[in-house]
From TrEMBL:
Keywords: Membrane, Transmembrane, Transmembrane helix
TM region(s), chain numbering: 63-85, 97-117, 129-147, 159-180, 187-210, 222-239, 290-314, 334-353, 374-393, 399-420, 432-456, 468-490
Domain of life, per lineage: Eukaryota
Species annotation: Karstenula rhodostoma CBS 690.94
Entry-linked PANTHER family: MAJOR FACILITATOR SUPERFAMILY, MULTIDRUG TRANSPORTER, PUTATIVE (AFU_ORTHOLOGUE AFUA_1G10370)-RELATED
Molecular functions (GO terms): transmembrane transporter activity
Pfam families: MFS_1 (PF07690)
Keyword Membrane: yes
GO cellular component term of the entry, any: plasma membrane
Compartments, as annotated in UniProt: Membrane
UniProt-listed InterPro entries: MFS, MFS_dom, MFS_trans_sf
The name this protein goes by in its record: MFS general substrate transporter
Length: 522
């Protein structure tokens, strides 16, 4: 699903020349290598080579998955732990509540910019180094947030913390692709996605109780810093590299050092980094896909709306439960438990459809069948507006128990997970050769929605009321609902008309050769 980074396969250009090279004083070129060039390449030694992380023992895989999952949880936790600090920060620094909300939105804006760097870095240096370095710098910025002396410092540090927090959201999906095969990857990615969404709902609960205690809002940032520091220690001590190219490159370096045979190398050491090509892959091509490909545009618009609602709930729930229902602010955050249960239910629904997808994949000789990804998304598209309307029309009526209102979150949470996860899976399968760029386009736009929605949530719910504000969101969800059904019917035809999407279930069209070469995924 989240294998966001493209694989670079640009060998150094070799030109025929009659030029006489001089290596030093009275030293010309040494004799040519006696064996064929391929004889010096380091490759997998067999089907059970541990350089392929898919061959690791199950316990070995689980250790890596748990560490990477914790990195992801910390990153998503940090995004919303600030929600309980909005009012205290506004009072301490003398700014308005909407201005104070920038601490939440700037962090999410960091999610939009970070992948531009961490995507290619994970291909050049592997998975461990970017994740470990990002976790350490994230921890530093979170400590800076906790000790900020003015509002500007706090906002800048929140933004840069978001930039480095985006690293696991980008790289962990690629690491899971390294570790798990087709049969188990769907389940692993579903669990990974659940952590991405559970984090923003768990942290406001903890933050509310911390803020209302004598500890104050700064400890919401201190605790996040401590979590980041613990993640860094786990990454340094226990996380092993999963990226095959990096593992084999290190093996080649070791063999060279031990044998003093400098011809031994891995093919990745011949690669040439082209800045112009990087710009095309990570800036130009994603924008091209976003605005010229109907599938990418509509799926991205839908997931952006879902992502915006996710962070809008961080403002809407306190209004409904604390202001209108009179529940204390800290207790009102416990209502997020309904959303958490919904996310777990959505994860279970996706996993339940995995055997069907694997069966279709096997019938199609291992070639992805994109439209099969849309079935759980259809379920989510139906559940999500039901949850929103339920939330809207039980919020204002004191005769209706708060428990009935909280239960609406189960449907909303399940819809969020099903729509979001399967939409991204569909993009990866439908745009196999340029999947990294399609996901980059989605990541950029949805981060802007996630950053913007909380800014108008308070005014919208105060002026329209819970019933009509929630209904407005419900009607928008209904307007988006036909998308997975339409693509299930017409998606294959649209892909045949595309210059970037695979046609005939896997054969890429020839029209955009440069895009395919520059963005081919493993």
């Amino acid at each position: 699903m989240f294998h966001l980074a493209p694989t670079y396969t640009n060998p150094v250009r070799r030109t025929k020349t009659s030029q006489r090279f001089q290596l030093g004083t009275n030293r010309s070129l040494p004799p040519p290598l006696e064996a064929d060039e391929k004889s010096y390449l380091v490759e997998l030694s067999g089907e059970d080579d541990p350089a392929n992380a898919k061959n690791w023992r199950f316990s070995h895989k689980m250790i890596a998955a748990l560490i990477l999952g914790f990195d992801t949880l910390v990153a998503s936790w940090g995004s919303s732990v600030y929600s309980a600090a909005v009012t205290p920060v506004a009072l301490e620094f003398g700014v308005g509540s909407v201005i104070s909300l920038l601490g939440l939105t700037l962090y999410i804006c960091g999610f939009a910019t970070g992948p531009l760097a961490f995507g290619p870095l994970s291909e050049f240096y592997g998975r461990k180094i970017p994740i470990t370095v990002a976790a350490f710098i994230f921890t530093c910025f979170m400590f800076a947030c906790a000790t900020a002396k003015d509002f500007q410092t706090l906002m800048l540090c929140r933004f840069f913390a978001g930039v480095f927090a985006s690293c696991p959201l980008v790289v962990v999906g690629g690491a899971f692709s390294d570790i798990f095969g087709n049969e188990t990857r769907g389940i692993a990615i579903a669990c990974f996605s659940a952590l991405v969404f559970i984090g923003p709902f768990i942290s406001p609960i903890a933050a509310a109780f911390i803020t209302e205690s004598h500890l104050g809002w700064r400890w919401t940032q201190y605790i996040t810093s401590i979590m980041g520091g613990f993640a860094t220690v786990l990454d340094v001590l226990f996380l092993e590299e999963t990226y095959q190219k990096t593992i084999l490159r290190k093996r080649a370096q070791f063999i060279r050092s031990e044998t003093q045979n400098w011809a031994i190398h891995h093919v990745s050491e011949e690669e040439n980094i082209d800045f112009k090509e990087l710009v095309n892959k990570h800036l130009a091509l994603p924008l091209k896909l976003l605005f010229l490909e109907p599938i990418v545009f509509l799926i991205t618009l839908y997931t952006s709306f879902i992502y915006g609602i996710l962070y809008l709930f961080l403002e809407a729930y306190p209004i409904v439960f604390a202001e209108y229902r009179g529940i204390s602010p800290s207790i009102s955050t416990l209502m997020y438990i309904g959303l958490i249960i919904g996310v777990l239910l959505g994860c279970a629904i996706v996993i339940a459809f995995e055997p069907r997808y694997n069966r279709k994949l096997k019938e199609n000789n291992g070639i992805p069948v994109p439209e099969q990804r849309l079935l759980p998304m259809m379920v989510g598209a139906i559940l999500f507006p039901i949850g929103l309307f339920w939330f809207a029309w039980t919020g204002n009526y004191s005769s209706i128990s708060w428990a009935a209102l909280a239960v609406s979150g189960i449907l909303s949470g399940a819809g969020i997970l099903n729509i979001f996860l399967q939409a991204l899976n569909y993009l990866v399968d439908a745009y196999l050769m340029v999947s990294a760029s399609s996901i980059a386009a989605d990541t950029f736009l949805r981060s802007l929605f996630g950053a913007g929605f909380p800014l108008f949530a308070t005014q919208m719910f105060h002026k329209l009321g819970v019933d009509w504000a929630g209904s407005l969101l419900g009607f928008l969800a209904v307007a988006f609902m036909p998308i997975p059904f339409l693509f299930y019917i017409f998606g294959a035809r649209l892909r045949k008309m595309s210059s970037c999407a695979p046609t005939d279930f896997g054969a890429p069209k020839k029209a955009d050769e440069e895009a395919q070469d520059s963005d081919k995924t493993q």
